[in-house]
TrEMBL record, chain A:
A UniProt-annotated Pfam family: STAS
Domain spans labelled STAS: 3-114
Domain of life assignment: Bacteria
Protein's recorded name: UDP-glucose 6-dehydrogenase
The species this protein was found in: Thioclava sediminum
CDD domains for the chain: STAS_RsbR_RsbS_like
From TrEMBL, chain B:
Lineage: Bacteria, Pseudomonadati, Pseudomonadota, Alphaproteobacteria, Rhodobacterales
Gene3D superfamilies membership: STAS domain (3.30.750.24)
Protein name: Anti-anti-sigma factor
Domain of life per record: Bacteria
Keyword Phosphoprotein: yes
InterPro entries: Bact_StressResp_Reg, RsbRD_N_dom, STAS_dom, STAS_dom_sf
Species name: Thioclava sediminum
Keywords: Phosphoprotein
Domain STAS: 166-277
Amino acid sequence: MSGVTSINLVENALLVSIQDDVTDTEIVELQDTLSNRIAKENVKGVILDISSLEIVDTFVGRVIAQLAGISKLLAAETYVVGMRPAVAVTLVELGMYLPETRTALSLTHALTQLRRA
Amino acid sequence: MPQTATANILNILESDFSGVVEEWLGTQVKEGVKRSDLFSDSESRAQNQELLKAFTKGVRAGVVNEEFSLDDDEWEDLRAVLADVSKERVGRGVTPTEMATFVLALKAPLFTRLEAMTDIESGKLISDVLMVTRLVDAFAIYTNEIFIGERDQIIERQRQEMLELSTPVVELWDRVLTLPLIGTLDSARAQEVMENLLETILERQAEVVIMDITGVGTVDTQVAQHLLRAAAAVRLMGAECIISGISPMIAQTMVQLGIDVGTVSTRSSIRTALADALQKVGYVIKTSEVS
């Protein structure tokens, strides 16, 4: 597992913090580790904290969409939290609206919505 | 003394300066371009004198071998005076036609005076007339250019001002923002509106955003595209977007254009949108029992 990206269990969800200097290899590894842990720990949700991401490209956008797809198949909802305005604008310009993910302003909001679900 | 191309013209301009000014004014009256309603007689006279003085100076120094260009240093005075005069005329609402005719009216007094000079042979007369025409035409074209440039500046300034004052994001309630859109929504404005909105969402930690398009005159595919992109960005930030102010007319147009709003909620009035938004952030609207 990479040292840059951490996965922590918070309540009934896995919290994943993606750092700004994450490499393509690390993010592919993350996909693998994360899917294993979702299956093993039987969580209800995955929270992707991308507040430290300042730049996104189509690759990162696609990985986020794939993570959401994988989680959904394993019966967990994906919440993307803390997206910066510039990142949101870029994703929209790239045409990546991430319809398979849920979004929340912050970790607290995501947890509240998860508890309600 | 060798006959230069402009000798006769200079002679007229220098020996009968005030006569030319008076007749120039007279022609302007005749052509109907002297705006007595905008400029007093003394003001017009002063302007004409200044212009003609600068013009004479240019003719004296700026014409070499029948060639000249108003961009040369010798014509600097004329350009400066013209800039002032044009600015003032634009400000008072003179039309471009009036401005051009105003300058072109200078030909008449010069022609009559050339004609009256009995010592010119006919071949020379024609070349002198040609020279006057070229000079005055260049003068008029330059005037129009300055005139239009002046107007362009005004338009650009107003456009900039409109862009700045048009995108307020208002906090309606705790965690509820509204963005009243007014006027036209082109790409530049849409971009600015979106960035402004997203920053405010982050700053206020807003959960619901109402984009009100009551003040947007027409919704075409372009405008709808901008709106939906803004809504998508708002959702990515983790907030929810409601588009309100969709009139029956706009609803019909949108359906006819085949615009799909997807999962974005739409409301006809900001009133219902607000009720919805408050409910979403956990408030209940109740009528007071004491009435």
